[in-house]
Amino acid sequence: MNIKVKIRRFNPEKDRKPYWAEYSLDAQPWDRVLDVLVNIKENQDGSLTFRRSCAHGICGSDAMVIDGRNRLACKALVKDLGKRIVVEPLRGLPVIKDLTVDMEPFWRQYRSIQPFLMNDDPPPYTERLQSPEARARFDETTKCILCAACTTSCPSFWADASYVGPAAIIQAHRFIFDDRDHGAQVRLAILAEGNGVWRCRTVYNCTEACPREIEVTRAIREVTRAIVTGEIR
Ligand code: SF4
Ligand code: F3S
Ligand code: FES
């Protein structure tokens, strides 16, 4: 079928401001938006710029705004979107070119919560064992692929990018509730600061945007509760 794709484009080396470009092409209903973008790049305009790597919803590199909603281009099917598709870069991060945004502010927030296992106990001969129940406590937040769809859909982040954002809180949750980790109080103290969890206004955009179907808002509430009560297990 023939589809029309409107893309928000911007090349800071030659454009004074962003503009809309429209492309017409044939696509199959089961094509993904990523296939459509590759088709346009290969056959109509090689300068169209976007990120992608795995093309299978794993690497998190092709999050963008598709028909007004944050999605992964490799998971959005033409048949679910119709014959007119609108594609824009993620909001709240500076545009480098077209659909490619500068992720450094996002990575800075990610690094701020110290996303690595803290445990100074002497390592055992084999792995650090954990019960299935203890593993289940933080299973959901291990599914995060750091695509930034949540953080860049959050009005609190749009208003002030110093807010650590839902993705960083999700990553903190993954370690705070891991009983092999000893850094929970360090992370809770970081997230109790002014730019931490208190900036969340329970808008739920993050939960709706997450391509991994993580209950992001609920996880943020769990971290907030741990800060207030001091209980982490
Ligand atoms: Fe992406 Fe979901 Fe992780 Fe946010 S929580 S970065 S939306 S995978
Ligand atoms: Fe933002 Fe999600 Fe909270 S959209 S305000 S982080 S519930
Ligand atoms: Fe890797 Fe889409 S290209 S998640």
**Kindly state the mean pLDDT as a whole number?**
97
Strand content: 5-15%
Number of helices: 8
Query: What small molecules does the structure contain?
Result: iron/sulfur cluster, FE3-S4 cluster, FE2/S2 (inorganic) cluster
Spatial strand order of the main sheet: 2-1-5-3-4
Amino- and carboxy-terminal Cα gap: 53 Å
Q: Helix-strand pattern, N to C?
A: EEHEEEEEHHHHHHH
Uncertain parts: none
Based on CA inertia axes, which overall geometry fits? elongated
Please estimate the helix content.
Answer: 25-40%
Structural class: alpha+beta
Please count the beta strands (DSSP E, at least 2 residues each).
7
Radius of gyration: 20 Å
The major sheet is characterized as:
5 strands, mixed
Question: Could you explain the architecture of this structure?
Answer:
The protein is α+β, with helices and mostly antiparallel strands and 233 residues long. Helix content is 30%, strand content 15%. The chain has a five-stranded mixed sheet with strand order 2-1-5-3-4, with helices on one face. The longest helix has 14 residues, at 216-229. The chain is elongated. The chain starts with a strand and ends with a helix. Bound molecules: iron/sulfur cluster, FE3-S4 cluster and FE2/S2 (inorganic) cluster. Iron/sulfur cluster is lined by residues 60, 144-150, 166-167, 170, 209-210, 212, 214, 216. FE3-S4 cluster binds at residues 154, 156, 166, 200-206, 216-217, 220.
